[in-house]
Amino acid sequence: MVYVHLADGFEEIEALTAVDLLRRAGIETETVSVAGRLPVTGAHGIEVIADILFEDAVYERCEVIVLPGGMPGAANLDAHEGLREKLLSFFNQGKWLAAICAAPMVLGHAGLLAGKEAACYPGFEKELEGARVSREDVCVSGKVITSRGPGTAMVFALAIIEALKGSEIKKQIAEDLLLSFHSE
């Protein structure tokens, strides 16, 4: 199970691309609202009805916490104390964390990037506290996956697929999407 977290102001491309590709790969994926209600409005005014509320999520079933970026979405994720507790718990259990665009700042502020390589949207580098900043589209450092922004959303989702299902499934999904340059 993967939980993709939605806060008001989330980047729609990043959140929904992850959900779409993960489901194509046969990975059970749900959207989790941290807004206190199921309808969550993205950074570009697109309203998405989340699958579940944060309060109803069963994190014991979850293998990966995904944080889409966008502003103020990433700042709203960062301000959610319950989510921060789950991130710390996942990190301490050696479970996967994935964040894209501005959202790696949430991991940085929680102290989860120390000594790791991480990518983010340009201008957020100082928020990646303790990390070695990368300009790669996607960084996998230990059990933390980070990515740069909307244009890297597909390769970000493919990295999560590879972490959970292996390189062959990643390659197949990439080929199905005509992303042959990322399927090798």
Structure commentary:
- The protein is of the alpha/beta class and 184 residues long.
- The chain has a single domain, classed as Rossmann fold, CATH 3.40.50.
- It contains six helices and eleven strands.
- It has a seven-stranded mixed beta sheet with strand order 5-2-1-6-7-11-10, with helices on both faces. The protein has a two-stranded antiparallel ribbon with strand order 3-4.
- Strand 3 and strand 4 (47-49) form a beta hairpin.
- The model has no long low-confidence stretch (mean pLDDT 96).
Topology (elements, then pairings):
Elements: E1 2-6, H1 12-24, E2 29-33, E3 39-41, E4 47-49, E5 52-53, E6 64-67, H2 73-78, H3 81-93, E7 96-100, H4 104-109, E8 117-118, E9 132-133, E10 138-141, E11 144-147, H5 153-165, H6 167-176
Parallel strand pairs: 1-2, 1-6, 2-5, 6-7, 7-11, 8-9
Antiparallel strand pairs: 3-4, 10-11
Helical segment count: 6
Strand content: 15-25%
The CATH topology annotation reads as Rossmann fold
SSE pattern: EHEEEEEHHEHEEEEHH
Query: Order of strands across the widest beta sheet?
Result: 5-2-1-6-7-11-10
Low-confidence stretches: none
CATH architecture label name: 3-Layer(aba) Sandwich
Q: What characterizes the major β-sheet?
A: 7 strands, mixed
CATH homologous superfamily classification: Class I glutamine amidotransferase (GATase) domain
CATH class: Alpha Beta
